Amino acid sequence: MHRLQPGTTIGILGNGQLGRMLCLAAARLGYRTHVFGPEADSPAEHVATYSTVADYTDETALAAFSSAVGVVTFEFENVPASAAAYLAAHVHVRPTWKALKVCQDRIKEKQFFASIGAATPPWRGVNTHSDLDIAIKEIGAPAVLKTARFGYDGKGQAKILAEADTGAAWAAITGGKNPTPKNTFAVLEGFVDFICEISVIAARGQDRNVVCFEPSENVHANHMLATSTVPARIAPATAAHAIDIATRAIKALDLVGLLAVEMFVTSSGAILCNEMAPRPHNSGHWTQDACGTNQFEQMIRAVAGLPLVDPARHADAVMRNLVGEDVNNIDGYLADPAAHVHLYGKAEARPGRKMGHVNILKAKT
Ligand code: AMP
Q1: Cis bond leading into 337, ω under 30°?
Q2: Section 103-107 average pLDDT
Q3: Is residue 117 part of a domain?
Q4: 328 SS3 class
């Protein structure tokens, strides 16, 4: 165990709202934080003890950062391999690059799910438009075409409604240019007729102990998470299955920190894994107010070598994202003692920008 003493600085790569909430959780446990990211005036910078604004490829800045912190963790997974390798050579990094890189690539992720015996939607790797035409015949329509890397909140995705109709989707995800990536460029997935989407946030400590928050039921709007609700409307056996998948995944990745696994539940009760993230997740924000501990504190505990605690829930909850102008209509929430408002300190409420969220609690059913 590598236990950090109070007052030690935890380094966080990325400085968005997830980093902000990690910093707040770290401060409560007596740690300082140092965030590193390319954006100035970012949500995490406002609350971190120290901040570096630099590109992830800036080795001089990475060198100063790594010598100033006791451990490095991440608030997002799309850091360049070069930054992760540089840091790993100079400081403890949790989770490790080995775990992170699986989560950067949808194809590696799907192969990983198969390796732990967890089902996914049917899929094919695709590098050219003619690959896509073959794949759509095998998978059938409707289907979703997704870039293998760097997609988020529906970016880099296009739905294909009919087998003959691949041209627009290919143009949409390639921007009209022929891709020449090192790895497979895109993945075609069968469109799942799910009854609901759920996610499980698992935490694993340095002592290898795994604890999971219960599954939340997630609703997306405009390709972005809109609400997460607990309890999810799923059978107890489905919830137990989802927790088992997340537990097996975090163990197989040998990850110290958090793993969020997003899944589709079908009408037969089957679970198909969609994607995973080795960090706090938007669909875990309900834990901040409905549980004795929350995803951010569990992650800090894990990377700091503290024991993880039972994440049992004491209230029913709905987490609602405040997107764009939503943030200007929160007076009702502010007046409601059951509504816990979290704002990210972003000055400009642009359309589609996550500005905050609110956790609305009810007595536990
Ligand atoms: P992703 O970026 O993969 O999480 O996709 C964003 C959202 O698009 C998911 O949460 C689903 O609501 C929807 N979606 C993605 N892939 C599929 C699929 N294969 N079948 C049905 N819906 C999907």
Answers
A1: no
A2: 94
A3: no
A4: helix
234 and 290 both lie in a single domain: yes
Q: If pLDDT is split at 50, 70 and 90, which confidence band does 137 have?
A: very high
Choice from 106, 267, 274, 283 to test ligand 1 binding pocket (greatest atom count within 8 A of CB): 274
pLDDT at 51: 98
Asked if residue 3 belongs to a domain, the reply is no
Q: For residues 69 and 92, give the distance between their C-alpha atoms in angstroms, rounded to a whole number.
A: 9
Residues 176 and 55 in one domain: no
Number of domains in the chain: 3
Predicted confidence at residue 183, as pLDDT, reads 78
**Whole-prediction pTM:** 0.96
For the record, the structure tokens of 255 come out as 């990850």
Answer yes or no: is 253 within a domain. Answer: yes
Give the CATH number for residue 172.
3.30.1490.20
| pLDDT of 288 over the 80 cut | yes
Q: What is the pLDDT of residue 318?
A: 98
Domain containing residue 219: 194-363
Does residue 144 have its Cβ closer than 6 Å to ligand 1? yes
Pick from 266, 265, 253, 239: nearest CA to 111: 253
Task: Indicate whether 175 and 129 sit together in one domain.
Answer: yes
Task: For residues 303 and 163, state if they share a domain.
Answer: no
Nearest to 31 by CA among 311, 286, 305: 305
* Helix%, strand%, coil% for the chain, nearest 5: 30, 30, 40
Average pLDDT, integer, range 322-340: 98
Q: What are 122's two structure tokens?
A: 């049917």
Span from the CA of 220 to the centroid of ligand 1 (angstroms) = 9
Q: Is residue 185 part of a domain?
A: yes
Tell me if 217 CB under 6 Å of ligand 1. no
